[in-house]
Amino acid sequence: MTPELKAGGLVLRALQPEDAPAVHRLINDWSVVRMLSRLPFPYPRDLAEQWIDSTRHDSAQGSAHHFAITRDGSLLGAIGLVLSDDRRSGSLGYWLAPSAWGQGLTTQAARRVIEWGLTVLRLEKITADAAQDNAASLAVLTKLGFAKTGTSSRRFVSRGQDCPIDLLELPRTTFLLEAQPPTEAPVPPAEAVPVAMEPPKPRTLLVVAAALLDAQGRILLAKRPEGKRLAGLWEFPGGKVERDETPEQALIREMREELGLDLTGSCLAPFTFVSENAGPFHLLMPLYVVRRWRGVPTPREGQTLEWVAATDLGRYPMPDPDLPLIPLLQELLG
Ligand SMILES: Nc1nc2c([nH]c(=O)n2[C@H]2C[C@H](O)[C@@H](COP(=O)(O)OP(=O)(O)OP(=O)(O)O)O2)c(=O)[nH]1
Hints:
By secondary structure, the protein is an alpha+beta fold. The protein contains 8 helices and 15 strands. It has 2 domains: 5-178, 3-Layer(aba) Sandwich (Aminopeptidase); 201-333, Nucleoside Triphosphate Pyrophosphohydrolase, CATH 3.90.79.10.
């Protein structure tokens, strides 16, 4: 299913039948239609209804995800990812009403959809194309890190002619490596910065996490909320170790802040650790196994919580560094 995503002040959500009048009004504009290859001009009202229906069907099948781009409840445009048959790549398409142009909104919406596609859907790359005279769209794609892979030509129904198009591609690694570091990542003290102008080394981020186990041996996973880095991915509850904390103190604090649990006096059994390149930083994450605590896990930071059997862990999209933990936990709990 197509989730709701947040991007700055924008809400990206599945299209609804009630959107048809607004979709029709906004697309039925020469400056929009002339850049969309398959649509006629004038754009008939029933095509808007048919298109919305088809997006809902695609979403149920998982073959494509189309989002209405909305701000304060008003529809401004749409953006979508059509997946390849093997579901390893997605083709990005979008349109925005002229009244919303020039505010960076397409870039904002596209960045969030791309991030979601590359992390939650685990796509390997995103492709896109644009008419060569669509300078605004090509600028957006370049800003997002897309690189031109070739050219082609396509029939534009509204223009009644074949037009040259640029083909572009954004590999998963490019996008994830260019992601901004989290704002609260520790900054090395000034005296530790070498004077020589060497390229900056990846910073190591120390994060503690817990595999909380219930009486049936299920593990508590938390889905990262919209607005955070890696939103929509499932993780082991935990967080960054502050400068003056031990990992165990940090874990006790995080469990209280995130889940309302009291772990003081509980056995915090070190299980294993992750040491992985996580894009903008290097992640060092000890994982503790915890079977006893006081309180009932309650999502206090907008997360979604689920108790998951070890055998089902693979069904929950997780950050890359967590993947090796899955077979280890399955072995522990098998
Ligand atoms: N808690 C947790 N974090 C993980 C896991 N896997 C993984 O890559 N991480 C990353 C995501 C974050 O970049 C970082 C955890 O930091 P955090 O949860 O305290 O902070 P955050 O980025 O959510 O953001 P913020 O609260 O500082 O805004 O470690 C995991 O299984 N559990």
